Amino acid sequence: LLKYLLLTALEQDVVVPLDENVTSSLVETLRKHSHNQELITSACRLLMLIATSEIAAEYLWEVGIIPDLLSIVREFLPNGKICLSCCGVVWSLAVSESADQALLRSAVPVTAAVLQEHLQHGAVAESACSALWALSLQGCLSEDEFEPTTVLLLDALRENPGRAVLVKNVCLALASLLRLSEIPALRLVTDSNGSGINLLTDTCHLHFHDPQVVETICMLMNEMVQYGEM
């Protein structure tokens, strides 16, 4: 019955009331049926939609949802739908007023694993890049994660240059990392798969008629200037 209700809500694009009972039921579903892939897929999708509410995000922090999400992603890493939804929830939790930096740090390697696994799956990569951006804004990445994360973000951009939202998420995440360290700047210049600067320039030309994308790329370039690497 629960699976039927979840699927019906998604298929009919039902607006779910954002009360604690609904959120609590979804969390309980995740915990009691953590090995039921079909049910978890639907529950995570609804949780992603609900988590955009600050009230729901606050409740999810209270019940400690992060370890549950990360366990689900580890178990179902090849499942793009689950990974997309979980990264969406991570983003909502990271930008909420109740964000706990210490707990969010554990989401960094798992989110990176999602991006690595789904580099060529545009929608999932987009969601993972968004989550990495939010995590970088919260200062959740350690210094030894700066370089591999930069490489991974550049790979995502290289694989999906035509996705405007992904391009913006990648640039925002890189800019956030550049404000913390010069390591991303060095990697942008010396990327083993080709100059990151050339990649950004080519991407800028590709989105020449999209002012938001161009502005985001220019903002990233401006962050590079402070290190004298341009």
Automatic annotation (TrEMBL):
Instruction: Show the taxonomic lineage.
Output: Eukaryota, Metazoa, Chordata, Craniata, Vertebrata
**Enzyme's top EC category:** transferase
Keyword Cytoplasm listed? The answer is no
UniProt keywords, alphabetically:
ATP-binding, Kinase, Nucleotide-binding, Serine/threonine-protein kinase, Transferase
For this chain, one GO molecular function annotation is: protein serine/threonine kinase activity
Q: What is its EC number?
A: 2.7.11.1
The protein's name: non-specific serine/threonine protein kinase
Reaction(s) catalysed by this chain, per the record, are: L-seryl-[protein] + ATP = O-phospho-L-seryl-[protein] + ADP + H(+); L-threonyl-[protein] + ATP = O-phospho-L-threonyl-[protein] + ADP + H(+)
Organism domain of life: Eukaryota
